[in-house]
Design brief:
The complex is a heterodimer of chains A (314) and B (131).
Chain A: H1 6-22, E1 23-30, E2 33-34, E3 37-38, H2 39-44, H3 46-52, E4 54-60, H4 75-87, E5 95-98, H5 108-118, E6 125-128, H6 142-147, E7 157-161, E8 164-168, H7 185-196, E9 204-207, H8 226-233, E10 239-243, E11 251-254, E12 257-261, E13 292-300, E14 305-312
Parallel strand pairs in A: 1-13, 4-5, 5-6, 8-9, 9-10, 10-12
Antiparallel strand pairs in A: 1-2, 1-4, 4-13, 7-8, 11-12, 13-14
Chain B: H1 2-41, H2 43-50, E1 52-57, E2 60-62, E3 65-68, E4 72-78, E5 87-88, E6 103-108, E7 112-117, E8 125-130
Parallel strand pairs in B: 1-4, 3-8
Antiparallel strand pairs in B: 1-2, 4-6, 5-7, 7-8
Classes of the chains: A alpha/beta (314), B alpha/beta (131).
Chain lengths: 314, 131
């Protein structure tokens, strides 16, 4: 500590503070394996970022614009901090993935406010998938009017970037009676066809709002027909499945498939089964930034691997 | 004379008083009856009398099963900090997102059994039976 330049130290502290509040996850691609890197670390430790490869994308999730209760009365403020964190990265990624719950109540003014805030991101492309909070309007049109173009209003689509195949799925329409999300047969058929032509060495990134594996069924933390989707993905050497929804990090590795849920930029939620339901969790205000964050992924070329990092706002 | 007259006057006044009291009673009764009839004939007043409320608390509808006569207006009120929606399985009715203390109402004009859920938390299910 005594060797630390005080200016550097205070900058680190400031960035860690920022990271504590509502950041995302940075992803690097290394040898076909996607690994998340703590964003605060990525910002403060240039060596580590360089070693991990070039930034591929940042994942932001559960911004819940419109939420104003005790758990975080200023979700716009913590999203602003998150955006500053991304913009301060030494090597900025080209892509941002927003894994849903952009808004809290699907209201037009919430979408407008979110768009205005997200436009401050200094990145080329913003890709989104809706959360159930984004399709809660009676007509289910507000989200698709704004973000439906990429998917022709279906909610699912794919694209390629730097040799990585990205698949955006929607699992927040047509819930199952037990509360789990669902993809539905038309989307599964589309996914099978979309993946068929790809070589097994193509790194795949799949993103959807609700977890694509069952984390806790009583709270609906899973997707009923996700296994069928995984069946199409198993032959690939590197599959990274990214979700939001539960406002905390839960990870699982199964063969070549890495599952990862990101933090929210708005408020934390209880761990599975703790309390009556998965609502906003009120924590002491000095603890809040430590429970908000982003995920990021960088690409490592030799061998080609994806590296995933989680970062908090403080 | 003066005394008799005055007693007569007194009796007359009493009779008049009774007449006034009786006619006043009849008028009040008439008002009550016509008011009551008006109440029964007024659709909104009928709905008021038959309103039912379902509360949403701790990720549950309460009551989870409700039986109401045809024409009942059912109102839902969300008491949770987390938003909820009301969506019938057959899409007969669907609310937007209800924030804390927001309400949504639907008038049931057709008999039947209506299963509904919260589209955000579909493990929350309940039924309205309309007879």
């Amino acid at each position: 500590m005594s060797n630390d330049d005080p200016i550097v130290t205070s900058r680190r502290r400031a960035l860690r503070c920022l990271a504590f509040g509502g950041a995302g996850t940075l992803f690097t691609l290394a040898g076909g394996v996607l690994t998340p890197i703590d964003l605060a670390l990525a910002v403060t430790d240039r060596k580590m970022t360089a070693a991990s490869g070039m930034p591929l994308f940042v994942q932001i999730s559960d911004t819940h614009i419109g939420f104003n209760k005790d758990a975080n009365p200023d979700v716009a403020g913590t999203l602003r901090q998150t955006i500053e964190l991304v913009n301060a990265m030494p090597a900025r990624p080209a892509l941002i993935l927003h894994t849903g719950d952009i808004t809290h109540l699907s209201r037009p003014e919430e979408f407008d406010s979110a768009s205005q805030l997200l436009s401050q991101l200094r990145v080329t492309e913003l890709h989104t998938t809706p959360g159930e909070h984004d399709v809660a309007d009676a007509t289910v049109t507000e989200y698709f009017n704004r973000y439906g173009k990429a998917s022709d209003r279906r909610g699912y689509y794919s694209f390629d970037h730097q040799g990585v195949h990205f698949v955006s799925l929607i699992n927040v329409l047509n819930f199952k009676a037990n509360g789990l999300g669902a993809l539905g047969q038309p989307q599964l058929e589309w996914l099978e066809a979309d993946l068929k032509a790809r070589s097994a060495s193509t790194p795949i990134v799949v993103f959807a709002h609700m977890p694509l594996w069952t984390i806790y069924e009583p709270w609906g933390w899973g997707t009923a027909d996700a296994d069928q989707a995984m069946g199409y993905l198993r032959r690939f050497g590197s599959v990274t499945v990214l979700n939001g929804h539960i406002h905390q990090i839960v990870q699982k590795v199964e063969g070549n498939i890495t599952f990862h849920t990101a933090r929210s930029s708005a408020y934390p939620q209880p761990t599975a089964g703790d309390g009556p339901g998965p609502g906003p969790l009120k924590v002491p205000s000095d603890q809040l930034p430590k429970m908000l964050g982003i995920s990021s992924v960088t690409v490592q070329q030799h061998p080609k691997m994806l590296a995933l990092t989680d970062t908090t706002l403080a | 004379m003066l005394n008799t007259e005055s007693s007569l006057d007194y009796r007359t006044r009493r009779v008049r008083g009774r007449t006034i009291a009786v006619s006043l009673c009849a008028w009040v009764l008439l008002v009550v009856v016509s008011g009551g009839l008006g109440f029964a004939a007024e659709p909104s007043a009928t709905a008021t009398r038959q309103d039912s409320t379902v509360s949403i608390h701790n990720f549950m509808f309460s009551p989870t099963s409700l039986v109401v006569p045809v024409g009942t207006k059912v109102s839902w009120k969300n008491l949770d900090g987390e938003p909820h929606t009301i969506k019938s399985i057959d899409d007969t009715f669907r609310s937007g997102a209800l924030d804390q203390n927001d309400t949504f109402s639907f008038k049931f004009d057709k008999p039947g059994t209506y299963k509904y859920a919260c589209s955000i938390h579909p493990q929350m299910v309940a039924t309205i039976e309309v007879k």
